[in-house]
Amino acid sequence: MNNHLRGLFITAVMVLVMIFTLTGNGLTAEMIKLGVAGAHSGDLASYGIPSVKAAKLVVEDINAKGGILGKKVEILAEDDVCKPEVATNTATKLLSQGVNVVMGHICSGATKAALGIYKDSKIICMSPSATNPALTQSGDYPNFYRTIASDDAQARLEVDFAINVLKFKKIAVLHDKGDYGKGLAEYAKAFIEKNDKAEVVLYEGVTPGAVDYSAVVQKIKRSDADAVIFGGYHPEASKIVMQMRKKKMKTIFISDDGVKDDTFIKVAQKYAEGVYATGPKDTSKNPLAIAANEAHKKEFGAEPGAFFLNAYAATQALLNAIEKAGSTEYEAVSKALRTEYVETPLGKIRFDDRGDAIGVGFSIYQVQNGVYVELK
What we know:
The protein is an alpha/beta fold. The protein has two domains: 31-148 and 284-360, 3-Layer(aba) Sandwich (Rossmann fold), CATH 3.40.50; 152-256, Rossmann fold, CATH 3.40.50.2300. The chain has helices spanning 3-22, 45-64, 84-96, 108-120, 134-137, 151-165, 179-193, 214-223, 234-246, 262-268, 287-300, 308-325, 330-339; strands at residues 32-38, 73-79, 101-103, 124-127, 144-146, 170-175, 199-205, 227-231, 252-255, 276-280, 342-344, 347-349, 362-368, 371-374. The chain has a seven-stranded mixed β-sheet with strand order 7-6-8-9-10-13-14, sandwiched between helices. Strands 2-1-3-4-5 form a five-stranded parallel β-sheet, sandwiched between helices. Helix 6 (151-165) packs across helix 7, helix 9 (234-246) runs parallel beside helix 10 (262-268) and helix 12 (308-325) packs across helix 13. The chain is globular, with a radius of gyration of 23 Å.
């Protein structure tokens, strides 16, 4: 082969390689990589696993229709066990895999730990469940978005319900010392203190994972509280409620979306009855929510778990923004999230300048006959 023919051959090969790369043909480099980070194991897996399943359903549907911008979407799922010290490694691992956007994390503490790492690499992160107000209100994380309302709204609803609906005057406020639980409790405490109809008779942090909470239960009893407002998650809440009820205490227990989970009821069993918890508004009558829930039942043979619809909406919002932006470039996707509406199981949403979803809120639920029921 002479030099001229060899040159033409090399050029042809290079062109074919370029065409092969640009048209995708299944190459990972030509996929849009969606990170899904959260508690996929451990005590709080019941919050994280539904998000993985939501992402899987959305991505399967989108890929069946040709993908986004002519590319298939690939899910990179990484477990952070809802622990900040693990979340930093999770974020670093996702970045090393070339992730384009991240749906997650699940817990506020883990989310906060990972956000700075994503921020430095200009990666957008959208949580279906991290409600700590500072994540959007501090201005420190312009790369963060969420499809759930923040804890200040949740705490205000709990306090208003306790004081104005249940007419309680003495309220004990507890938390689990974490970013999420303590943050919510601090807001609740402040709202009560600004209200002249009620007072905080106990403000206390508990240690997560403890076997026995009898000391704080005794403090609640001595405080003569009408109600407890608890900021935290179901493992601690279930133990506290069980110990209160076993001591024949009728003190009303009010908590948050960290407790508004079927696992709480399974663990606390009969003692869960009557417990109140705030959670995302019921959108089950939304046709898109009905379709998403049915798809889950068909695919996984069970009802969806906590934050499933919020995760479904987050996945849709991220991928819609990439499509509207025409790229995965950070600034373009950020602009699309703030300006382009997307139809989701939560309704038609977009995001404000802080990263909070417009049109998303909380309701009060109560355990009645072994299930959480939304109160109207």
